Amino acid sequence: MRVNMHTHSVFCDGKDTPEEMVNEAIRQGFEILGFSSHGYSPNDECSMSPQATLDYIREINRLKEAYKDQITIYLGIEEDKTCRIPSKDPYDFVIGSVHFVEKDGTFMSVDYSEEMMEQILKEFYHGSFLCYARAYYKEVTELAEAEEVDIIGHLDLLMKYNDKEKWIRFDDPEYLETARACIDAIGDRKIYEVNTGAMARGYRTMPYPHRTLLAYMKEKNLRLMLNSDCHDKTKLTCGYELSLRLLKEAGFTELWILKNGRFQPADINLFH
Ligand SMILES: [Zn+2]
Ligand SMILES: [Zn+2]
After folding, report:
1. Span 6-49, pLDDT tens digits
2. pLDDT value for 105
């Protein structure tokens, strides 16, 4: 089974048109492809304008119909706390992702660049990664309160530039406590994604969330899905092999998919 529910295109910051992505997904034997353009946010230059949003909805719905005999396409959106969608209609699913931390009305991007992350640390949190982590996870916990959110996007995105543990150890007890408190607060109300996007772009050798958190999520019996956060059609399954191995090692026997319009579990051994 091949599935990806986190796909970007030229409608936001992706490289390819949705139709190019669909054709490549069909070529690679995908059964399900969900599009999740960045919903409009005035703070986010990567997000779709209100007009582009209307064009995006029209185009994905056109593709759904045009390719319905070859692949199931879903219309989704990746929304941020800084700008929630006004209504879940017409979307099939919503990914809730935190890309910004805010202090005194200024929004700073968590994942834009390592330089910006350093600036956030210095100017917002006096160089304390733990204070930064607490602020980030507070935003995630708050966004998860949004009823329309189905999937929690890239849970530990703030670790994007920490692959070599330059800023903090992945098993730092206080860091883990902060992340676990966020997971506890959200509980099983949402599906969490394992996201390989930073692997595709060479920032990380591991997916989000780190395996230290995957084990905790298994302990809590939470629902996970595997997504590539794809911005380039050649990377549709980037990192899937490693992620599936990590998930199996953590004890997961099933992953969640959207099928026939309903979230449901599927045997992890079916995925590749
Ligand atoms: Zn994102
Ligand atoms: Zn994304």
Report:
1. 999 999 999 999 999 999 999 999 999 999 999 998 888 889 99
2. 85
**Residue 157 CA to ligand 1 centre (angstroms):** 8
Residues forming beta bridges with residue 103, ordered by sequence position: 106
158 Cα: distance to centroid of ligand 1 (angstroms): 11
Which residues surround the ion ligand 2 when the cut-off is CB under 5 Å? 78, 229
* Sequence-distant (≥ 6) Cβ neighbours of residue 36 within 8 angstroms: 5, 6, 7, 8, 76, 77, 78, 93, 95
| Cα(258) to centroid(ligand 2), Å | 17
Superfamily classification of domain 3-270: Metal-dependent hydrolases (3.20.20.140)
Model confidence over 172-211: pLDDT tens digits? Answer: 999 999 999 999 999 999 999 999 999 999 999 999 999 9
Q: Which token pair is 238?
A: 């980037």
Among residues 49, 63, 57, the alpha carbon closest in space to that of 90 is found at 57
pLDDT at 132 over 90: yes
Domain range annotation of the chain: 3-270
pTM: 0.97
Give yes or no for a contact between 47 and 40, defined as CB atoms under 8 angstroms apart: yes
CA of 271 to the centre of ligand 1 (A): 23
Residue 153 Cα to ligand 1 middle (Å): 6
Distance 72 CA to ligand 1 centre (A): 22
Between the CA of 113 and the centroid of ligand 1 the distance, in Å, is 14
